[in-house]
Amino acid sequence: MEQLPHCETLLLEKHGPALFLTINRPDVRNAMSLQMVAELSTIFNQIEQDNTIRAVVIRGKDGHFCAGGDIKDMAGARGQKADEGQHDPFYKLNRAFGHMIQQVNESSKVVIAVTEGAVMGGGFGLACVSDVAIAGPTARFGMPETSLGVIPAQIAPFVVERIGLTQARRLALLGLRIDAREACALGIVHQAADSETQLEELLQATLERVRLCAPNATAETKALLHRVGHEPMNKLLDSAAETFAEAIRGPEGAEGTMAFMQKREPKWADDSN
């Protein structure tokens, strides 16, 4: 991504190997519109081919992460009728979000969610597909769908993967809202900051660890983790051994070993590379 594209719902800034992606709809607590879904999907599609980007930091502008789906889009879909043989407009709206969140989930980049204020519905789902989630002191998480007469159709599977069926049942069936501390205890987020200052410190510490880890090895490891539970273990371990052999004989394996022996940082830790 030589030049960052212009987005109407997102702010994009590149700092070293990290792309900072800020949801920019503060007037509606960064609620997720169809346009935002399309722009997120476009960005994640483009960065997949960009080796200079190793991490994506997602956060919301002006104190809120994302308050869920945009009511205006839902109202618009209600006024539309499905053409004969076509899917219901509500299906298309909901499924578009599902495609995007799956794309974020399976991205080869390290996805870091910095959550503050409202982290509801689709925003909650976005936090649940991050590789690292950090919560600020104002963060409030929830799956309010059942209290609104709808279902968390696209996020529920990812919530179950994140925290397990038992806890997902409680949150989803009661439409609960929880604070950052409980979200951390449940495993929705990995760290909960006591202050805005600490939140930034935790983010910088995470980005420092991304800098020190080999990009290709990180991407292969993430892909391997996603395969667990979806294929026979023997087949998975055979495949993982082949990938391991390729990695240790490859340029990153050679450089990592040499850097360790020479007591220096590996070349990939240089932000200018």
TrEMBL record:
One of its GO terms (molecular function) is isomerase activity. InterPro entries: ClpP/crotonase-like_dom_sf, Enoyl-CoA_hydra/iso, Enoyl-CoA_hydra_C, Enoyl-CoA_Hydratase/Isomerase. GO terms for biological process: isoprenoid catabolic process. Pfam families: ECH_1 (PF00378). Keywords: Isomerase. Coiled coil: none annotated. CDD domains: crotonase-like. Belongs to the enoyl-CoA hydratase/isomerase family. This is Enoyl-CoA hydratase/isomerase. It comes from Marinobacter santoriniensis NKSG1.
